[in-house]
Write a structure and sequence with these properties.
With 193 residues, the protein is an alpha+beta fold. The protein has one domain: Peptide Deformylase (Alpha-Beta Complex). It has 4 helices and 7 strands, in the order H-E-E-H-E-E-E-E-E-H-H. Strand 6 and strand 7 form a beta hairpin. The protein binds zinc ion. The site of zinc ion (ZN) has 4 residues, from helix 3.
Length: 193
């Protein structure tokens, strides 16, 4: 049950390379720490973020700046999914749908893995991005409980991608422009390595 009775009330994705978008700065601003107890504005952001996540197919994670809120909040989930594993052979660690406030991570080794990334905030671009293979993380739930743990493989990649968003960074910032490809090109390269 939610006060959001209509999906049309949800904010649109902010897309960095949409020439008509006027609010793309929010994707570039490092967010400040969220204060507990959560105020009503922050609770609204969480409701919108979760509803947007739930209505988006093939969505592994989402960060508040992607729907226009400069808040240090992300949502993510990784299931043990056979379809996804075809493209993410390093999917081993899983995570039930989690809303994380003030998340951070640290690498547990200098090892990095290269794999494709794409993003709802970057239209029709993809690239192979190096990410730490094994990380530790910590965050707080909306109820103020601390969560921490370690993650490897695809889950570690997703956590790094989403935390980058609340630090004002996009995956395309991490490799030179020559390495960006369209989604079609990415699928061809991914399926015919
Ligand atoms: Zn993203």
């Amino acid at each position: 049950m939610s006060f959001l009775s209509s999906q049309s009330l949800l904010p649109d994705y902010v897309v960095i390379n949409d020439p008509l978008a006027e609010n793309t700065d929010v994707l570039r601003i490092p967010t400040e720490l969220v204060q507990f107890p959560l105020d009503e504005a922050t609770r609204t952001v969480i409701r919108h973020l979760e509803a947007k996540f739930d209505q988006t197919e093939n969505c592994g994670g989402l960060a508040a700046p992607q729907i226009g809120y400069s808040k240090r909040i992300i949502i993510l989930a990784v299931e043990d999914d056979e379809e996804l594993k075809k493209y993410r052979p390093d999917l081993s660690d899983t995570l039930p749908k989690s809303i994380w406030i003030n998340p951070s991570y640290s690498p547990l080794s200098s090892d990095k893995t290269l794999d494709w990334e794409a993003c709802f905030s970057v239209d029709n671009l993809s690239a192979r991005i190096p990410r730490y293979t094994h990380i530790s993380y910590e965050a707080w739930t909306p109820e103020g409980e601390k969560v921490s743990g370690t993650a490897k493989g695809y889950l570690a990649r997703l956590i790094q991608h989403e935390i980058d968003h609340v630090d004002g960074k996009l995956f395309i910032d991490l490799v030179p422009e020559e390495e960006w490809v369209t989604w079609d090109e990415m699928r061809k390269m991914r399926d015919n390595p």
